Amino acid sequence: MIIVVMGVSGTGKSTVGQALAIALGWDFQEGDELHPPSNIDKMQAGIALGDDDRWPWLDRIACWIRGESEQGRSGVVTCSALKRRYRDHLYGAGDDVRFVHIRVPRAELEQRTRHRLHFMPTSLLDSQLQTLEEPTPGENVLAVSGQDTVAEIVASVRHWLDARVTSSGS
Predict the structure, then answer these.
(1) Could you say which DSSP state residue 9 is in?
(2) What CATH number corresponds to the domain at position 117?
(3) Plot region of 35 (φ>0 → left; ψ -120 to 50 → alpha; else → beta)
């Protein structure tokens, strides 16, 4: 199984993803580390990424998912996964891909992004929020509040995973 921790910049994807991977004993991949240098340069310059910029990055994440799946390993990867077609691409990369969508109110996102060291400036938050296509009920997504503690989010994800295993009869 692969869990993609998704959401716009500043939601806490990296913190939650690392904590979840540790709690489950799974591999972890920071999705930002898979960005091509040209994407990082653009974001540092305050230029929003478009689809043409994102696809090579999404392909690298899909490759990581495929590698984990082929090796029979479970893992957690972070990725904004802003559009449905991005998520569909990642769903297709593994046998059992699930998403955890971290939601945080805009005002808090602004505050968080202003006070962190990251290549993505606060000025790009609007473009991410405008690009975000909220996951639909038909997608395999658990929505969580980024205002909860990391421990609460990890517990919610574990409960969701346990409930899904129980309901599938596995």
Answers:
(1) T
(2) 3.40.50.300
(3) beta
SS3 content of the chain, % helix, strand, coil (to 5): 55, 15, 35
Q: What is the pLDDT of residues 81-103, one digit of tens each?
A: 999 999 999 999 998 999 999 99
Q: What is the pTM of this model?
A: 0.88
Name the domain count of the chain. Answer: 1
Which residues span the domain enclosing 158? 2-168
Dihedral, 13, 165, 89, 87 alpha carbons, nearest 10: -40
Residue 72 DSSP one-character state = T
Q: In the numeric block, which tokens belong to residue 57? A: 């990055």
For 104-145, the DSSP string reads --HHHHHHHHHTS--SS-GGGHHHHHHH--PPPTTSSEEEEE
Tokens of 39: 């994407």
